[in-house]
């Protein structure tokens, strides 16, 4: 190994040690350092210390059901182990690259997000639900040039069960988050709620 490669390796190790030794506290509220990318997926712009990814099933259900409760005709969602297993398997596939790419399943509805650092499943749910402001209930459409499909998936009347997963990606400080919903929403000529 050449001298310059050794120096680069030592510098990379020092940066990693410094990065992981700096822990900051963050609540489960919507992070301030997120943006929506061109694919209407969510990416964390700034990185922080790694996430533990230990969001409880109940916290995930509570976050979904808080939003669903705002629409009187909606039933609360419940956790579905089969759906969660699918989400875990797909999150594991994305571990290699953290690509913001849907699974293309026809069986489940799906919301995905990518990020870094301490991003949690609750952060992703909060971001998806922030699209509520882009949704026009009267016309069942998103505002011009706006995304609202993540929000409508959360409030889809027929989607009564959910399963979510988070994986830490090998690439950078990446996080991949997925929530799948069953039954999936049918967006053709119907309102979600």
Overview of the molecule:
By secondary structure, the chain is α+β, with helices and mostly antiparallel strands. It has a domain at 54-102 and 109-187: CAP (Pathogenesis-related Protein p14a, 3-Layer(aba) Sandwich). The protein contains five helices and eight strands; from the N terminus they run αββαβαβαββαββ. The chain has helices spanning 3-21, 57-68, 81-93, 121-129, 149-154, and strands spanning 34-36, 42-44, 78-79, 109-116, 135-136, 141-142, 161-168, 174-182. The strands form three sheets. A four-stranded mixed beta sheet has the order 3-7-8-4, sandwiched between helices. Helix 2 runs parallel beside helix 4 (121-129). The longest helix is centred in the first third of the chain and has 19 residues, at 3-21. The radius of gyration is 18 Å and the shape is globular. It starts with a helix and ends in an 11-residue tail after the last strand. Mean pLDDT is 77; it is low at 3-52. One of its GO terms (cellular component) is extracellular space. Residues 1-23 form the signal peptide. Pfam families: CAP.
């Amino acid at each position: 190994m050449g001298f310059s490669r050794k120096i680069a390796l030592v510098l990379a190790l020092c940066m990693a040690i410094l990065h992981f030794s700096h822990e900051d506290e963050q609540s489960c509220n919507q992070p301030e350092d997120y943006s929506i990318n061109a694919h209407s997926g969510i990416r964390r712009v700034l990185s922080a210390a790694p996430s533990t990814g230990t969001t409880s099933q109940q916290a995930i259900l509570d976050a979904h059901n808080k939003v669903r409760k705002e629409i009187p005709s909606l039933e609360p969602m419940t956790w579905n182990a089969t759906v969660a297993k699918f989400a875990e398997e797909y999150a594991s596939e994305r571990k290699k690259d953290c690509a913001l790419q849907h699974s293309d399943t026809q069986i489940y509805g799906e919301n995905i997000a990518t990020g870094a650092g301490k991003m949690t499943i609750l952060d992703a749910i909060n971001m998806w639900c922030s699209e509520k402001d882009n949704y026009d209930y009267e016309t069942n459409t998103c505002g011009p040039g706006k995304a609202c499909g993540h929000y409508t998936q959360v409030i889809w009347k027929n989607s009564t069960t959910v399963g979510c997963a988070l994986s830490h990606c090998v690439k950078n400080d990446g996080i991949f988050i997925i929530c799948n919903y069953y039954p999936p929403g049918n967006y053709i000529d119907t309102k979600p709620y």
